Task: structure prediction
Amino acid sequence: MEHHRSEPRHPRRCSVTVDLSTQIGSVELPNPVMTASGTAGYGPELARSFDLSTIGAVVTKSLAHFAWDGNPALRVHQTTGGMINSVGLQGPGVTAWLTDHLPALLDTGARVVASIWGRSVDDYRLAAEQLAAADERVVAIEVNLSCPNTETGRDLYAHDPEATAAVMAVTEACGRPRWAKLSPNTSELVGVAGAARDAGAEAVTLVNTVLGMAIDVENSTYRLGSGARGGGLSGPAIHPIAVRAVHDVHAAHPELPIVGVGGIASGLDAAEFVLAGASAIQVGTATFVDPAASSKVSAGLESWLLRCGSDRLTHHIGAVHEH
Result:
């Protein structure tokens, strides 16, 4: 899986000390780079590759209030410019995660964002209630309203402002800042983002995967075990879609913090999201190619700021809108 660009080999050196700290609603992070949900496991899986405490936060795979086996195999297929997956939100459930996975993750010094999902509004409420007792180093809850890899298929909460608001309202029980993870697969994205904010979201995460499908032309069958439901496309192929989503939501709601995600594999990719209006970013599919990708994106973002002669990331958030 090749990416469309990489960092300059010899960044210009200077004496500027770069401040990468950022604020997402009430959450302060020393670094804007996070892992993306679904790509970093539930615990310290990536700690062998880099120091998890050096990035902004580790975002967990999405958790329900119940354990779930996910979709049948095959679950992942490489495509041009990325991958398509239909894992189906497999997970141990919030209670088991709190006991069996979170302690080891916290031992690494990582800040944690827990992602939750559900089939019903009440499922989200129960997951949020279970997380209320989590360690304070779980700094936020990302409410996944937009995964296409469940039996609901294209019928996502994130496609409807009222459904989005209903879920965000009941997740208040977690007692933490909440971020709404939204879908690019709707023309209502700007309205949905506003509804999420009005219902209590301190930020929105843009975007989840793009609806896609892969077919085996030799055997006339679906590539993924999900069959006709297809899967979610991620990686460099969706990068311009995600940048556009961040740009448009920031233009409509400039006061709403945004976490940008979609095809980020370098500091330059991350910089695009920042300029479009993101206060932080997440690295996802690139992690499957290089488990240390998040750390390298952070270094690349710092190098970009140095080449700009800038000492603070926040000076550049949404800067493209000033032109």
Remarks:
- The chain has one domain: 22-319.
- The chain is about 25% helix and 20% strand.
- The first strand starts at residue 22 and ends at 24.
- The two ends are 34 Å apart (CA to CA).
